[in-house]
């Protein structure tokens, strides 16, 4: 059996079903993950901290009865390095926290661990989940950024190194790297998951995120994180009957190839009988981008307190964001909060029959180079409104570089959104 | 100079002005706090962990230039023991976390420390800020509960041990102990303050709280926590022109003496020309109590993850809450979230001219005994709606035991609320 190829092709639930059916062993799958990492990590750079194969297998074998009886069987999990882990450093991509060893697992890590996941390592994050990149390269094209801030988690999933990874999004930190790398990335509705032990950046914006290879994997991980009945059986898929189309131009700059991909998606959906309504938003969605920036600037400098006292150890963009927040008038912040809240109602009143919004997940393909992580504006409006979002991969440009489209759901209707994403994804691949 | 009497009578800003004016020294005020603690702590039991006088003075003197130039001058701060402190244990009132030493300060602690506050100690919390009491007794009547969960912070302020203390509220954990002990307790609008490093209980409900002796002290501390210009000059006071009166019976059980206090407050306000409109809410406020419980139960078991795996070390009520959350249907939780959100609009549409809501802060005086912390229902509706609230002390029953009334403001209009509380408080004292 060529386990490398199997892992390349299998999602988490597929792996778990294969174990159940005796098609392959857990150890073979673990080894396949490490084989892939051994072959690719020097180039991709997805990992900040990493267990060795020997340590991993020893941990698995030491509690093999537990793992064999568990839901996740001891399969490997990647954890973004701003999420605390009790047995690995959590350094948040900043020299300020070099060597920082948390005393506890974040609640999301504790739940996945209890379900039988094993933390293979911490994935690279940008500095405090903001802009300054880590070492990660885009596995779809190593000359390009993987996007950020959950750079390592997106790359590890897209490059088939692990079948599940945790991330977080305050602006575009899950959807953008998922779009650039060609992975599934899901951001929960605001407040949906416990963020205990995840380092906060902006309390009105932070959401937990998940990366996986199949939508059913996201559904499984979501169920575990919500302590709901979880199943590895194939999940049902369904197309939305109506989507609201938000063309990139209503949000901000968008590339010609993304315009083509969006148009192609519309044609594919209409061919399936899905009604597509244009979101003729005027300037209001663009204004949400500004409101998001205001909220983020105000809150970041009130969360990164100790860090703000060490500006000489911060990147220029983060120091500037903190300065923006400190000099901001409180009325601006409160007005942006109010605008975002009223936007949540306005958005769906525009087309009450719409099941979800379809819109570019990023302005285009991943930019060349590794000095920046690309523009976040395509995510800011939905993140400001606290809506659940999923990047649906599959589209590519003429050179095969990923182009992501995102599906935005109604607040707290994450399960419905994931069902629609299951219906949509086969059309794009 | 009898520093004990001075401290008994002085709020934080009064102390700071006295230092500025050369009326007394910082060390005299620090010593007065320790004198009071030495005299009373054995009976009151406000402190979980405490610096000794010698340690405190050594810390102060080691950086005296910094403190003398600072806003808070090195005066003592109490920190609820679910808020992380890098130099003191944070045990959350639970044997599960005995000896737990955080690696970092919570952001609120870092900000007050940077402003020149010194953490005198950690104040007693109930188990994970829920129901199971710690050792604290009510300083106004030692035979009674201080209320919870911020029991130690409320008692330390009411008993004049420190001039400022941090707490938190998920149900009634600031307002109830403030009402029972006769302290000012303020709960910020949801999302108002960073909760980084404060242990989360329920993400849709948790708020930071402050305890102090004067409203101007709350205003000062709030400004520091928001990194806004802060002043120790006396703040302006203003009565609301119109209050919405929510009689205790619309929320739940209320004692005859609280009914009398509420009526007395109405008469006092009307005598000042304040318009009082009865909130004729039918059952809707009572329903908010149920929605609050649903939201809390769902979220607590998804935050206290590791703890839920050690049920044998949890109190009966907390284990039951976790059980309730684990067996709850998700639709119930989502419906309660929606009910609460629509309630936020409904509440003020009822009387758009109202500046604030006046309502009992607790069902009555603090109950006798120390096995429980009293009923939280009077706070649940406002907390569920994420509104800023302040307990305005001053009223007492025939035996001099405190009766608290709370003023509830509009979301994110905390500054306005505090101004009204400044106007109101002199009427009650």
From TrEMBL, chains A, B:
GO MF assignments: catalytic activity
Domain Amidase: 29-418
Highest taxon of the lineage: Bacteria
Protein name: Amidase
Lineage: Bacteria, Pseudomonadati, Pseudomonadota, Gammaproteobacteria, Oceanospirillales
Signal peptide, first to last residue: none
Gene3D superfamilies in the cross-refs: Amidase signature (AS) domain
Cross-referenced InterPro entries: Amidase, Amidase_dom, AS_sf
Family matches, as SUPFAM superfamilies: Amidase signature (AS) enzymes
PANTHER family linked to this entry: GLUTAMYL-TRNA(GLN) AMIDOTRANSFERASE SUBUNIT A, TRANSAMIDASE
């Amino acid at each position: 059996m060529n386990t490398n190829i199997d892992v390349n092709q299998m999602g988490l639930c597929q792996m778990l079903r294969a174990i159940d059916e005796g098609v392959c062993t857990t150890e073979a799958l673990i080894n396949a993950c490490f084989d892939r990492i051994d072959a690719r990590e020097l180039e991709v750079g997805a990992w900040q901290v990493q267990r060795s194969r020997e340590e991993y297998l020893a941990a698995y074998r030491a509690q093999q009865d537990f793992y064999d009886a568990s839901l996740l069987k001891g399969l490997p999990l990647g954890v973004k390095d701003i999420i605390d882990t009790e047995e690995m450093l959590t350094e948040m991509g900043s020299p300020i926290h070099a060597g920082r060893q948390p005393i506890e697992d974040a609640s999301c890590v504790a739940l996945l661990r209890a379900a039988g996941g094993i933390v293979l390592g911490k994935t690279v994050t940008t500095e405090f989940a903001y802009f300054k990149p880590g070492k990660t390269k885009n596995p779809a094209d190593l000359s390009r950024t993987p996007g950020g801030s959950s750079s390592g988690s997106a790359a590890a999933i897209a490059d088939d190194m692990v079948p599940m990874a945790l991330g977080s999004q305050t602006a575009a930190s899950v959807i953008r790297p998922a779009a650039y790398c060609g992975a599934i990335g899901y951001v929960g509705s605001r407040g949906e998951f416990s963020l205990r032990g995840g380092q906060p950046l902006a309390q009105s914006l932070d959401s937990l995120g998940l990366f996986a290879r199949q939508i059913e994997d996201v559904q499984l991980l979501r169920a575990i994180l919500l302590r709901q009945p979880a199943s590895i059986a194939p999940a049902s898929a369904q197309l939305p009957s109506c989507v609201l189309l938000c063309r990139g131009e209503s949000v901000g700059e968008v590339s010609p190839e993304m315009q083509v991909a969006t148009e192609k998606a519309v044609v594919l959906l209409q061919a399936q009988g899905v009604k597509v309504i244009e979101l003729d938003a005027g300037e209001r969605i663009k204004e949400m981008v500004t409101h998001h920036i205001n909220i983020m600037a105000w809150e970041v400098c009130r969360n990164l307190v100790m860090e703000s006292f060490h500006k000489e150890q911060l990147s220029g963009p983060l120091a500037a964001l903190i300065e923006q927040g400190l000099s901001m008038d409180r009325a601006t912040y409160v007005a942006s909060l109010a605008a975002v809240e009223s936007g949540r109602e306005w958005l769906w009143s525009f087309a009450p029959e719409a099941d979800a919004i379809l819109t570019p997940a990023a302005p285009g393909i991943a930019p060349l180079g590794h000095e920046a992580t690309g523009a976040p504006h395509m995510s800011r409006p939905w993140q400001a409104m606290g809506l659940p979002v999923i990047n649906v991969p599959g589209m590519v440009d003429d050179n095969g570089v990923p182009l992501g489209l995102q599906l935005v759901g109604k607040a707290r209707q994450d399960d419905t959104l994931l069902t629609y994403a299951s219906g949509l994804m086969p059309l794009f691949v």
